[in-house]
Specification:
By secondary structure, the protein is mostly helical. α1 runs antiparallel to α2. Helix content is 74%, strand content 0%. It has a domain of 46 residues. Keywords: Membrane, Transmembrane, Transmembrane helix.
Length: 85
């Protein structure tokens, strides 16, 4: 009976950890996705665009996509491994 209670306690800890990690990851990636969708909205069509300005805007949007998703995934807390076993 004691082993069952201890085993359930470990399972509950893992379950809570997974839930917290999933929520943190979902919030981070969802926020990054929202920023990217906002940045993808077309600019004013009253301004003249040249191929160079279009390329610069596309390059900036690509950098924004990469940086926001890298930060979202990189800053999400996860299990810390010291490398020592």
């Amino acid at each position: 009976m004691v082993g069952l209670v201890v085993g359930f306690g470990e399972f509950a800890g893992v379950l809570v950890f997974g839930l917290v990690l999933g929520l943190a990851f979902g919030f981070a990636v969802g926020s990054a996705d929202g920023v990217i969708k906002w940045a993808e909205q077309p600019a004013s069509s009253t301004l003249a665009t040249t191929p160079l300005t279009s390329w610069k805007a596309d390059r900036a949007l690509t950098l924004l996509r990469v940086i926001t998703l890298a930060l979202a995934v990189g800053l999400t807390p996860g299990p810390r491994h010291s490398g020592v076993e």
